[in-house]
């Protein structure tokens, strides 16, 4: 299982921004969509590094944790939020402060061949590619909803939110969260669930093309000797 957080057991670590991102990744790693390669479930361990300002301190703690000598790859997964460049700089600075290789851009692996330091990478939600845009996990989840009526329900939710905004003004500064959880709240299977809980309940299509970038950057890491 990739979600043991009190010690390092796997060579490939994914550092996730918050429990929702971590639980989403746990479900993805254990999904049928990735079952064709046992390394996804056997060689990758997830950690929740909490908030965006906690990453550097968490990496520092990680490097002192039992089992760190096993680590060959470290990947950071966090939201791009509203400023992609700031998100990039924040992650790069966290690697730099902990004397780890610093990838020059998102979605590539940095390897220092003349040292025994782990290879590092980071990718930004919701796009998980080399040209990230602003957004968050909720935006990705919105796009990969699995229900057979998901497309129509998404349109209905967007119409409802538009009506609320017209009549009452902005309902939330985090509209991406509002629309996803509105969808959950009108679907009997997902009422009141958090993202990780909804993932376990089958809310998302793990074979969706929107997840290909995330799958591919993990595969690249797994293939590093």
Topology, please?
Blueprint: E1 12-16, H1 19-29, H2 39-42, E2 44-48, H3 55-62, E3 73-79, H4 84-97, E4 119-125, H5 137-143, H6 150-168, H7 175-185, H8 195-200, H9 212-222
Parallel strand pairs: 1-2, 1-3, 3-4
Question: Could you please describe the fold and organization of this structure?
Answer:
With 225 residues, this protein is α/β, with parallel strands linked by helices. 40% of the residues lie in helices and 11% in strands. It has nine helices and four strands, in the order βααβαβαβααααα. The radius of gyration is 18 Å and the shape is globular.
Structure in a nutshell:
The protein is an alpha/beta fold and 225 residues long. It has helices spanning 19-29, 39-42, 55-62, 84-97, 137-143, 150-168, 175-185, 195-200, 212-222, and strands at residues 12-16, 44-48, 73-79, 119-125.
Strand-pairing-aware structural class: alpha/beta
Order of strands side by side in the largest beta sheet? 2-1-3-4
CATH topology value of the largest domain: Rossmann fold
Helix content: 40-55%
Please tell me what the overall shape is.
Answer: globular
**DSSP E strands, number:** 4
Number of helices: 9
Q: What structural keywords apply?
A:
single chain, about 220 residues, alpha/beta, Rossmann fold, 2 domains, 4-stranded parallel sheet, 4 strands, about 40% helix, globular
């Amino acid at each position: 299982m990739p979600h043991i957080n009190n010690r390092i057991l796997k060579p490939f670590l994914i550092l996730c921004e918050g429990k929702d991102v971590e639980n989403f990744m746990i479900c993805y790693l254990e999904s049928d969509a990735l079952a064709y390669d046992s390394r996804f479930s056997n060689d990758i361990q997830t950690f929740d590094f909490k908030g965006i300002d906690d990453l550097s301190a968490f990496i520092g703690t990680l490097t002192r944790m039992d089992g760190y000598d096993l680590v060959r790859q470290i990947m950071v997964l966090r939201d791009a939020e509203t400023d992609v460049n700031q998100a990039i700089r924040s992650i790069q600075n966290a690697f730099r402060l902990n004397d780890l290789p610093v990838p020059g851009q998102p979605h590539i692996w940095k390897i220092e061949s003349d040292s025994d330091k782990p290879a590092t990478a980071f990718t930004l939600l919701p796009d998980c590619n080399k040209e990230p845009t602003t957004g968050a996990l909720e935006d990705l989840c919105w796009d990969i909803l699995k229900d057979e009526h998901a497309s129509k329900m998404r349109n209905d939710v967007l119409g409802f939110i538009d009506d609320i905004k017209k009549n009452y003004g902005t309902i939330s500064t985090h509209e991406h969260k509002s629309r996803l959880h509105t969808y959950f709240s009108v679907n009997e299977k997902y009422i009141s669930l958090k993202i990780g809980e909804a993932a376990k309940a089958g809310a998302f299509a793990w074979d969706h093309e929107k997840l290909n970038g995330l799958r591919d950057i993990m595969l690249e890491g797994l293939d590093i000797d």
